[in-house]
Amino acid sequence: MWFWKVLVVAAIGTVHAASRDQWLGRSIYQVVTDRFARSDNSTTAPCDAALGKYCGGSFQGIINKLDYIQELGFDAVWISPVQSQESTRTVDLSAYHGYWPNDLYSVNSHFGTSDDLQALSAALHARSMYLMLDIVVGDMAWAGNASTIDYSTFNPFNDQKYFHDYKLLSEDPTNETCVLDCWMGDNTISLPDLRNEDQDVQQILGTWVSQLISNYSIDGLRIDSVLNIPPSFSPVSPSLSGLLNYPMYYILSEAFNTTNGDLNTIVQSINNIRTNCADVLPLGTFTSNQDVPRFGSYTSDLSLARNILTISMLADGIPILYYGEEQHLSGGFNPVNREALWLTKYSMNSTSLPLLVQSLNRIRSYASGDGEKFIVAPKSGTDYLSYLSVPIYKSNNILAMRKGFTGNQVVSVVSNLGAKPATKATTKIKLGSDGTGFSSGQNVTELLSCKTFVTDSSGNINVDLSSDGGPRVYYPTESLNQSTNICGNHTQTLTASSASQKTSTSAGISSFDLSMGVRTLIVTAALTTSYISTLFSRSPSLLL
Ligand SMILES: *[C@@H]1O[C@H](CO)[C@@H](O)[C@H](O)[C@H]1NC(C)=O
Ligand SMILES: *[C@@H]1O[C@H](CO)[C@@H](O)[C@H](O)[C@H]1NC(C)=O
Ligand SMILES: *[C@@H]1O[C@H](CO)[C@@H](O)[C@H](O)[C@H]1NC(C)=O
Ligand SMILES: *[C@@H]1O[C@H](CO)[C@@H](O)[C@H](O)[C@H]1NC(C)=O
Ligand SMILES: *[C@@H]1O[C@H](CO)[C@@H](O)[C@H](O)[C@H]1NC(C)=O
Ligand SMILES: *[C@@H]1O[C@H](CO)[C@@H](O)[C@H](O)[C@H]1NC(C)=O
Ligand SMILES: *[C@@H]1O[C@H](CO)[C@@H](O)[C@H](O)[C@H]1NC(C)=O
Ligand SMILES: *[C@@H]1O[C@H](CO)[C@@H](O)[C@H](O)[C@H]1NC(C)=O
Ligand SMILES: *[C@@H]1O[C@H](CO)[C@@H](O)[C@H](O)[C@H]1NC(C)=O
Predict the structure, then answer these.
(1) Distance 164 CA to ligand 3 centre (A)
(2) Which ligand is the nearest neighbour of the Cα of 480?
(3) Is residue 69 in a domain?
(4) Closest Cα to atom 13, ligand 9: which residue?
(5) 440 lines ligand 9 (CB under 6 A)
(6) Does residue 473 sit in helix, strand or coil?
(7) If residue 410 lies in a helix (H) or strand (E), which one and from where to where?
């Protein structure tokens, strides 16, 4: 559809051709800056997400907790919009989330100073990690109804001429013109809609974005509220772009949020997306974000959580984990899905999920040749990342996928059997050599338990999910011979999970020359408001 096409071609400023490829091997941790970590390192400071107040998270807080993010295996961090915000707290709560800008040229003082933001960028780059910035380019914010707006207070859009006439999108949400031109927000918080189709608006935004990128050495951008930005908006030259894979998100949450979901729908959805989307590799796969309920709000069953994380993070595309999903936080719809992570004490053993996430990131990184070292050509099909996953077993309750060429194939088996699958009819399956690519009598390591199995004389492998409902991830044992942080050198006696491994803060990340300034960018587009994403959720083709 029109509004997505824009983003597929819109990227910002001086973008290098390599940028898409450099992002493909990355794994992104998304934080709500106000809720991730505080400068004082407190793990007790109260934060009731339902109240919608600032809770004290900051850029310095993120710097202090980069070890945690890196230990989880991520090599890119997506943070909230950093601009100065409408400061009034109304019944629509406050702007702790960063989506209510009023001055694009100053930094939200609740998060720190521009020096602090530069320090965050430098700290990430020192670890060979990338910084992705969320930006709002479609509107400004004002506490009060339209008739009360003082446009002169906005920077740089200090005149009503930059904005569409007042009409709320909520009044006419199915009118395509209105979707482009109407105002999001309501009469409590007005979000006057920028005339992104106008050249002067584009030019002002373009200047701002280029400065932002160069002032803070930004590696990637995520543009908020895409739906509300017209096709002609492009302050920028065409280049790479990624999109958040919302169709997959809805299918996955429905398939895994109860034990009655149907995993066949996942295969259908993958096929649809491949048919309709020219380039699936930069699609961001996720299980939750700031606009939708957390997976933990649907179910407390950790087996289901482990399975959805596994299929999501090992899928084709770029994994994006919303902070706190690894801690099985359970907030439902906005605003309660923006909990303070510090209250979890950043534990790596709160549940099995943090170490699962670590293992999945390491597996993906290892199979793909450690990210940065491994620059792939678009659709070359010769490497792990561009090998499009093939379903090799599917039923309502169990799905097995293969990704990767023989010798480097990751075979994952997920289920929605739940933690107590005993009563289910089928908990054991046999995967044939034709699907897995494993040969007869081959040693295959299950990477989440670090147990090694030998395929039978036909190359089959038996998968038994009766104890815990999975997931399982198989990989040729001999191909682990260069791994240092997966399954303790792949020895045979392992029963411990990779949990017990030594965790290195630079696990799986090669150091590389990172020139400051503009280097690499991705634009990840998304629908912002939950009512709009709900509106379109059932028709993936609309997203293309
Ligand atoms: C917070 O933690 C960081 C990283 O561990 C440490 O360097 C810093 O001194 C701590 N700050 C405070 C105020 O305790
Ligand atoms: C807008 O807000 C002002 C100030 O609260 C109020 O006096 C006025 O009636 C409101 N106008 C509309 C159209 O709601
Ligand atoms: C759709 O919205 C536009 C912009 O508000 C408006 O001008 C137009 O009349 C609306 N169309 C219909 C059919 O209501
Ligand atoms: C970038 O830095 C320059 C020089 O300090 C400053 O004038 C400009 O306002 C900054 N732009 C942004 C978007 O931060
Ligand atoms: C499962 O997820 C779907 C899609 O997000 C949602 O509509 C549905 O309410 C969820 N079901 C349960 C039982 O949580
Ligand atoms: C998690 O690890 C910490 C530090 O090693 C330990 O003190 C704590 O008891 C562990 N908690 C659980 C639930 O295993
Ligand atoms: C499988 O592993 C065992 C134990 O390490 C080893 O003796 C055997 O040679 C391996 N088989 C193959 C086919 O590599
Ligand atoms: C690791 O195993 C592969 C496949 O057997 C082999 O080609 C490679 O030489 C081995 N590398 C090392 C360092 O042993
Ligand atoms: C395990 O790997 C480490 C790091 O590569 C190496 O130093 C050590 O000798 C290996 N241990 C075994 C038993 O192979």
Answers:
(1) 13
(2) 8
(3) yes
(4) 489
(5) no
(6) strand
(7) strand 410-415
Residue 507 lies in a domain: no
Q: End-to-end alpha-carbon separation of the chain, Å?
A: 5
Question: Which ligand 8 atom lies nearest to the CA of residue 482?
Answer: 13
Q: Given the structure tokens 């900051």, which residue do they identify? A: 58
Q: Is residue 512 part of a domain?
A: no
Asked if residue 148 and residue 8 are part of one domain, the reply reads no
Q: Do 277 and 159 fall into the same domain?
A: no
493 CB near ligand 8 (under 6 Å): no
Give the end of a domain, one of 171, 195, 219: 195
448 CA to centre of ligand 3 in angstroms:
55
Same domain, 40 and 76: yes
Q: Tens digit of pLDDT per residue, the chain (544 long)? A: 223 323 322 333 333 333 777 888 999 999 999 999 999 999 999 999 999 999 999 999 999 999 999 999 999 999 999 999 999 998 889 999 999 999 999 999 999 999 999 999 999 999 999 999 999 999 999 999 999 999 999 999 999 999 999 999 999 999 989 988 999 999 999 999 999 989 999 899 999 999 999 999 999 988 875 555 655 544 443 344 678 898 999 999 999 999 999 999 999 999 998 888 888 898 999 999 999 999 999 999 999 999 999 999 999 999 999 999 999 999 999 999 999 999 999 999 999 999 999 999 999 999 988 544 444 443 445 689 989 999 999 999 999 999 999 999 999 999 999 999 977 789 999 999 999 999 999 999 999 999 999 999 999 999 999 999 999 999 999 998 888 889 975 444 332 222 222 222 222 222 222 222 223 344 443 332 232 233 233 222 222 1
Tell me: do 306 and 220 sit in the same domain.
Answer: yes
CA distance 462 to 274: 30
Q: Domain holding 328: CATH number?
A: 3.20.20.80
Last residue of some domain: 178, 195, 212?
A: 195
Prediction pTM value = 0.87
In a domain, 513, yes or no: no
Cβ contact 475:444 at 8 Å: yes
**Do 219 and 106 share a structural domain?**
yes
407 token code pair = 């010798």
Same domain for 150 and 208, yes or no, is no
Same domain, 166 and 287: no
Annotated binding site for substrate: 100, 222, 291, 338
158 lines ligand 2 (CB under 6 A): no
Domain of residue 102, residue span: 2-138+197-366+521-543
Long-range contacts, stretch 259-265, CB < 8 angstroms, 24+ apart? 259/301, 259/304, 259/397, 259/416, 259/417, 259/418, 260/416, 261/396, 261/416, 262/396, 263/394, 263/395, 263/396, 263/397, 263/398, 263/399, 263/414, 263/415, 263/416, 264/394, 264/395, 264/396
193 and 105 in contact (C-beta within 8 Å)? no
Residues 464 and 330 in one domain: no
